[in-house]
Prior knowledge:
The chain is mostly helical and 507 residues long. The protein folds into 3 domains: 3-123, Rossmann fold (3-Layer(aba) Sandwich); 132-191 and 240-316, Serine Threonine Protein Phosphatase 5, Tetratricopeptide repeat (Alpha Horseshoe), CATH 1.25.40; 334-502, DNA Cyclobutane Dipyrimidine Photolyase, subunit A, domain 3 (Orthogonal Bundle), CATH 1.10.579. It is 48% helix and 6% strand. The chain is built from 22 helices and 7 strands. The protein has helices at 17-20, 35-38, 45-64, 83-94, 107-114, 132-139, 147-158, 198-210, 226-239, 244-247, 264-269, 274-286, 292-316, 344-356, 361-375, 379-389, 395-406, 423-429, 450-461, 463-466, 473-481, 484-502; strands at 3-6, 28-32, 68-72, 98-102, 119-123, 162-163, 166-167. Strands 3-2-1-4-5 form a 5-stranded parallel beta sheet, with helices on both faces. Strands 6-7 form a two-stranded antiparallel ribbon. Strand 6 and strand 7 form a beta hairpin. Helix 9 packs parallel to helix 12 (274-286), helix 12 (274-286) runs antiparallel to helix 13 and helix 19 packs across helix 22 (484-502). The N and C termini lie far apart (63 Å). GO terms for molecular function: lyase activity. This is Cryptochrome/photolyase family protein. InterPro entries: Crypto/Photolyase_FAD-like_sf, PhrB-like, Rossmann-like_a/b/a_fold, UV-DNA_repair_photolyase. Keywords: Lyase.
Amino acid sequence: MVRLVLVLGDQLTPGVAALKAADKARDVVVMAEVMGEGTSVPHHPQKIALILAAMRKFALGLEAEGWRVAYSRLDDPENSQTITGEVLRRAAEFGAGDVLATKPGEWRLLRDLEELPLTVTVLEDDRFIASDAEFAEWAAGRKQLRMEWFYRDMRRKTGLMMDGDKPAGGQWNFDHDNRKPAKADLLRPRPRDATPDAVVEDVLALVEARFPHFGRLRPFRWATDRAGALAALAEFVADRLPRFGDEQDAMLEGEAFLSHALISPYLNLGLLLPLEVCEAVEAAWKAGRVPIQAAEGFIRQIIGWREFVRGIWALEGPGYLTRNALGHSRALPAVFWGGETRMACMKAAVGQTRDLAYAHHIQRLMVTGNFALLAGVDPGAVHEWYLSVYIDAFEWVEAPNTLGMSQFADGGVLGSKPYVSSGAYIDRMSDHCGACAYKVKVKVGEGACPFNLLYWHFLDRHRERFRSNPRMGQMYRVWDGMEAGHREAVLAGAARVLERLDGGEVV
């Protein structure tokens, strides 16, 4: 009997588990563009366009390889507009009672599949280097889950940048050689934009008509097939990887890309695989084209951090999405949706996000995420925003990064302390502060940077939780050493900032 083989929009890999387990001569591949997935959150138009165009091209590739593909376009009149609705429709059409699926990267979708009145076999997504069971075994019995120790095990497992059983260069990471502050000489060749073809243009027109979400659709710069993704990887390795380590935390006004890879959308869609990406980087290092600190820093992000957050997502389960350890409840400020602001760093990060559906990890963590955490914004709202606006955001990777690393909503599962800072960090790593309406050196009173005020307010209101944290004790000693009148003025200034946020005023 025929089986349905479900392929989702972020499973665009010929060797994905459901396809590997299928019979090309008998089974039918089901792929569907559905409004329900495009509006589960208000996804950025460029994200929707990338996924739909890549799906269409992937389906054509499967057909060329001899697969029978039942593909539903968003504007097909019979489209039921949900994944499960399309599976049921195709099951009736082909007389199928069995479905093969690769584990989705969203708990919502997994639940929906498991509730189908069909025999659904959900296979593990083996495109990841560490399986769910392997990560759970690694995590079992540990008091704290720290990426560094997991990363070392992944290095040993893959053999990447290893010299026998020792790390290449005699150390596991080279952070001390990386992450230099922003300087004008950091500018590298701008990544080349992909040229939209007829498939992409059709999708762009469809998205323009159907999804009036936050974010600009054009110009659309992203590759939408494996060949384009491989070209983007090769360009990064040749042009920007040599200085990737230096620039990975830097921010420059008007320079969105610096030496970042811009391949995370392709990895998260399945157009590239994590091991092949790391092997390309390792090969460039072995050939002497890339310094060890750049190669190691990049590989750590892939087989270390990316795999680690996927493991956390799978281990913690759907309840992780509702965590709010700090009890934050403030509504997401209008600035996150492009509202007016006097803060240069927030204006730059949100504006770039609107225009490109992209911002690098420090803009997300230490600008927008830091501001939301300091202001006490509801982490669920922050999670939904990040999932909505970034082209590489899928729940399995976005939720742990946002709820755990950025907002500390998981209470320390992902990190030992919250990632909070005053304006000094942003000033050190960027050139935003020089042209800002606020003065980063001003700690209190008129013109004081909101990050300065809110930083101490955050520490003060969460004192009972964090004062014994060994990584935060020094800052509490600094706070306690300030003159009482100064502390009162700081807290009063922070309260005014929060009142203005709550009242919809410009901050």
